[in-house]
Design brief:
510 residues, mainly alpha, Fumarase C, Chain B, domain 1, Fumarase C, Chain A, domain 2, three-stranded antiparallel sheet, two-stranded parallel ribbon, 20 helices, 54% helix, 6% strand, EC 4.3.1.3
Length: 510
Amino acid sequence: MTTDKTIDIHGDELTLEQYSAVVHDRVPVQLSPKAIQKMSSSKAHVDHLVKEEQTVYGVTTGFGKFSDHFITSEQSHELQLNLIKSHACGVGEPLPEEIVRGMMLLRVNALAKGYSGISPRTVQALISLLNQQIHPIIPSQGSLGASGDLAPLAHMCLPLLGLGEVSFRGQIRPSIQVLNEVGLEPIQLEPKEGLALINGTQMMCSLLTEAIIQARTLLLSADIISALTLEALQGIPHAFHPLLQQVRGHQGQITTAKNMLALLDGSELTTQPAEKRVQDAYSLRCIPQVHGASKDAYHYSMHVVETEMNAVTDNPLIFPEIGQVISGGNFHGQPLALVADFLKIALAEIANISERRTERLVNPQLSGLPAFLIQNGGLHSGYMILQYVAASLVSENKVLCHPASVDSIPSSANQEDHVSMGSIGARKCLEVIENTKKVLAIEYLCAAQALEFTTKKCGRGSHIAYQLLRESLPPLTEDREGYKDIEISTKLLQHNTLVNEVTRKVDLQL
């Protein structure tokens, strides 16, 4: 049973909320009795296969191209140890602790389903590392995203064996030192267990789960910030009329238009068609269509990620109830690879349209406001260069959005001849999210500054957003270090403060 202090792991019920509690809030986990029973049953079946010396991939054979090499029962322990050591060859910067925690949690959850032939004792050893916040050092590069995230997951497993390095209490140390310090013993892997631990999609899934969590904040923030911009430019909310959205029918568009009208409710700054202009530019008029399409992409991506969070992704799989071992390709990351590319494109578009709104705010020919939103321009440059930064970030996003999933390079002597490259797409997705966050933060700054040149009242939701920023940052009256303004604005997005404050008073939907 799940309590406020511990989350039970069943294998098929892990939610995004539970994931966030374990990964971000460090809530401990434990195996459910049902999971322990199912794992014990599949492990007993593996032991029987080894005893009978039946030919089973990765249990009594080598791996990949070596699958035709028979391994005796006396060699089975060494086979699993060698697998982890040889596959721990990743390169690049270490993954952040949150991603590592996500990998550990997701691997435990997949193994808890009871189809992997691994003992509860081994899974409990991984849980002990997670609960005691002993985090393996896992290089970020080296996975092809098929046969799973082999190299990263091998690095995750090294500390179980007293090998590799871990991050513990803010220091990177040899794992054996930390295990001795906390009273944990290295384990010996049983037949199939090394393969069960590393044959999966948990790195790319952890990266994408984090992307889903952050994307929710950005999509709602984009609506809030764009409402401020629309007011600063005296835009026309008639384009958000419900009938207009309904006749097209896309749910994201309908939801976004509803959000915009709620945020702008009571505004004295918006205008009617032909009052100042007949129609707004696309970056204002088409907010429901653009933001809405990204919301629809988000919901599809979230569905795929939530499915993968509770999936069995190793090979072969053990089905003791029918006495079969079935080899297949559940480790192939194609579902996640496609989602990684789809989601990062969707979020890059949020940045693209945001930067165009920022340009409209700072350009006096488009805004009717003081150039670059500063009085005494010339002596002061105002927010001129913030738009440069936004333009640089959206350009960088365009490079990052080249799809990783369209590429494949054969491996293991052409035995593994199609791979997903999902881990690359997932890493790039988080980079796009980080850039998009800063682009929105820049629009937030410029929209709030533009409102300094009017005394009219903002809408119900946009007023909350304006006040929140002004609690931390005064209006720009003379030039100051722009990076500090961007940092303050970004933190309001990053820590969900903006979304939380606005949604307390305004019902926003995603």
